[in-house]
Amino acid sequence: MNPAETPIALGADHAGVALKDSLRAALEAAGHPVRDFGTHGDGSVDYPDFAHQVARAVADGQAIFGVLVCGSGIGMSIAANRHPEIRAVVVHNTTEARLTRAHNNANIACFGARTVGAEVVLDSLSAFLSTPYEGGRHERRVSKINPGQEA
């Protein structure tokens, strides 16, 4: 797939669905294709179900990046990071968003709907998506994240 045509995968639990829907609208308005894995309502659901779907889409190359939202972002990041190809991070601000892309080659941004305001999340997501991975000295470190799989 052409990276410009590769969607951004979205997922959320019931605590994050409203913020996810806002992010989807903003991404689509900016011209990003989106694949929304849900949830689509405020009924109680289990966050790992959505984290795993988004992580698989990113790991398989069906999405260029993932965005996950739950109450704190923490549960989603824990579940997504169970996939060896994934580097999911909880993001609280634009500085973290830029650094985690530039230095850690993060491929899933996780946000807490109960911990970070919507404007900060929108700005942080923009920084995450627009910051390239620097590679170089960081590549050696990133390759050591999954023991036994170092380059």
UniProtKB/TrEMBL annotation:
It comes from the Bacteria. The keyword Ligase does not apply. Its EC number is 5.3.1.6. GO terms for molecular function: ribose-5-phosphate isomerase activity. It is an enzyme of class 5 (isomerase). Keywords: Isomerase. Belongs to the LacAB/RpiB family. This is Ribose 5-phosphate isomerase B. It comes from Teichococcus aerophilus.
